[in-house]
Amino acid sequence: MEDAAESRVGKVKENEKGKGVVVLVMETPDRSKNNQTTTSTNKFEDSPVFDFLNSLSPIEPVKPMHITQTINPLSFASIPSVFTSPHVSSLKRSRFLRRHQLADPSKPEFSTDGGKTIDANELILDASSKSDKSHGNLNPEDSVDEAVCQSSYEYSKLDVELSQSDVYDSRCPHSSLTSSYYLSAKHSTEYGCTSSTFAPFIQEASQKAFYATEENKEGVDQIEQDKEATGCDWESFISNASDILIFESPINTESCKKSAESGESFYANLSNNVQNKISFSAAGSSEQVGEGSGSGIEKLSNQLGEGSELKEIAKTHEIVTGSSTSNQSENMDKEPDSGLHRGVRRRCLVFEMAGTLKKHLDENSASDSYLLMQSDGNTSSGNGQLIPTKDRSDSSKSVLAGIGLHLNALATTPKGYKFVAKFRSPAPQEELINNSSAVNLLERETSTVENGFPPVEDDSQASGCIVNEEITHSSPKKKRSKLEPVGEGEACKRCNCKKSKCLKLYCECFAAGVYCVEPCSCMDCFNKPVHEDTVLATRKQIESRNPLAFAPKVIRSSDSLCETQSDSSKTPASARHKRGCNCRKSGCLKKYCECYQGGVGCSINCRCDGCKNVFGRKDGKEVELEEDGGDITEKSMVDRNSKKTAIQNNLEQNPDSALPATPLQCPGSSVQHPFTSKNKPPRSFPSTRSSFGKTGTFVSQPKFDKHFESVPEDEMPKVGQEGSPNSGIKSSSPNSKRVSSYHSGAETSPELRSSRKLILQSIPSFPSLTPKD
DNA sequence: GAGTTTGAAACT
DNA sequence: CAGTTTCAAACTC
């Protein structure tokens, strides 16, 4: 361990300039808060490097501004921003997944991976905030070429391995996160792994760190404890990971390492900044690093040949910084490799692209989007997912569609992620992809809100849609996934619209922020990429009427956050339908009832008659359904019983749907309900597994199912919770409809307060978090 | 698969 | 804001 640490330091020194970045990441400023970082950092502190860093830039607390900018609601036309948070969570997970994406050169910067995406956002922020301090921090000089090459090469492999990362999870849940964090910061650089590769880890790590700091004040301590408890040493884990990377990377030269470091550090910084989790503080320094890295990256990219992901990164960076170069985009086009990765990314890319492009690069975006599309290649066309990507030309336009998806995705991702860990063997990538896509989307969303595609309710949706295709490629599962209906939906809800042209909320696809795809049986459908403009315009229109129109219908309150971990015991009961239902005949016991469908209890917002919602009656008692837990009021008890019954019924009807297993639990995630967003249990699930969905495009569902089945409540990602956009919603909703009032008022408070926080929290759900036992 | 029921969305 | 209409999903047969 120590040796490794030293070596790290040594490297850092070597890289002093750009490398500093890495250090920064690790070091995060706020020691008081982040014990973790602090502890880990201590080693470094003594090192000259540390001093160097300090000298570089004044360490200032990172301002929320960054985040704000990125996610800033203001930027978003409507509430969506609020919702983004949940996505974020998804992002975390996605990061792991991202690796694949990274691999794809085709993807344009952001689109590529969640990690990158995030990075891009961050970059943007940084760029804006910083003046230009050190472009040259990174030393492009260092055999960038090699680094680049490696990076590209590695990525492909990394993807695979990363997918395997599940292993980590299995080993030590918490530790994995932390470990990843460290890796990203420290090891990654040393090993010379590409920044992109680590980015995901870094992000997650940062997230974890965040959690640790925020929730677990004892961050580091916990980690160590975890280590002990699980017997897993995160450091070792890291080292292992690094090893893997090393293996993978055929070319490990120091030079490469250096270059890689710069890149990595860059990403790391970004991720950190974005999330804020790590209170970096030294915004300036980090920024500098970022810039430096970016510049370095660009150079590298130039040097590099085609297919290097670095290029992509560089692009993103440029875009952010505004130094964009058309050339890069061109290069991107050339990039041939990693067909697989591309496939995976596709959708995500599109979304991301759209988002990022819109905001940051119009120019580049065109090219980028183009690339993305290509990457998707075949699939893209069919899938259609979400976002209308316009093409290159209008990347900006295309944009956002994805947002809705993102949101949805977020919710799902976590689950998916987990699932992967458990099941991973077969098609880890797929899941990863899903997650990543979701994450990316989220990230993008925050930034892109404009698009208008608001977050989707279902987690499933987003993730599902996006992912599917890829999945299919990768493994049999994929196939299944495709076949399967998508379960969730996000991907495709398989609407049957006949008169609405799929441009109204009646259309589930449209409502979910996704494009209609093959599986859909709609007529005269305008909800397709081809009609992107129309779709976006319509969305705006609808949003103007009701900003929350595309927001998740089910909101989770802060409580739900259970997540954080350990407390699985608490169950979130707080999830509620944002507007409440108006059921009169169904007794809120059928899917006609949105509350029921969402797996949440009715609330005061509901105007239902004869409410018998098993998840909680509007009358009262909130019933915290939580099965787990705890306190159950009389009512709740009653509900429970009824609930069980209901669940059973559902099962009968929809055997496939796992709902029953965890109906309440996390109905939440923002969205997730037992039934999956739409779950259409009957529809999707059943078919999902066995046969397949028409389109085959979406995969996500299956995963979910599994997730539900396999994952215990505790484990369930709480992501959804964070989703609770409600809070935001409430305030925002101009219509003043009942919308989220309910929740927001009562439960939300904490979450709402800081979107950031929410996001972070949500993210965590990683498998790792849950101790394996 | 067709028809009915239901409640959200949209409209007035 | 309330009432009505439209719409498509959910459900039933």
Structural class: mainly alpha
Count of DSSP-assigned helices: 35
- Count every beta strand, where a strand is a DSSP E run of 2 or more residues: 2
Q: Distance between termini?
A: 25 Å
Strands of the biggest beta sheet: in what spatial order? 1-2
GO molecular function, one term: DNA-binding transcription factor activity
Biased composition (Polar residues): 321-330, 375-386, 667-679, 762-773
Family: Belongs to the lin-54 family.
Biased composition (Basic and acidic residues): 331-340
Structure in words:
Keywords: Nucleus. Residues 321-330, 375-386, 667-679, 762-773 have a biased composition (Polar residues). Its main location: nucleus. With 773 residues, the chain is mostly helical. It has one domain. Helices cover 60% and strands 1% of the residues. The protein contains 35 helices and two strands. The protein has helices at residues 2-27, 35-46, 48-56, 64-71, 80-103, 109-112, 114-129, 144-164, 166-171, 173-191, 195-214, 219-231, 234-248, 254-275, 283-303, 309-321, 326-334, 339-359, 363-376, 378-383, 395-398, 402-423, 428-448, 459-474, 476-483, 508-512, 532-545, 594-597, 634-653, 684-690, 700-710, 719-723, 726-732, 741-753, 755-762; strands at residues 554-555, 576-577. Strands 1-2 form a two-stranded antiparallel sheet. The structure holds a DNA duplex (12 and 13 nucleotides).
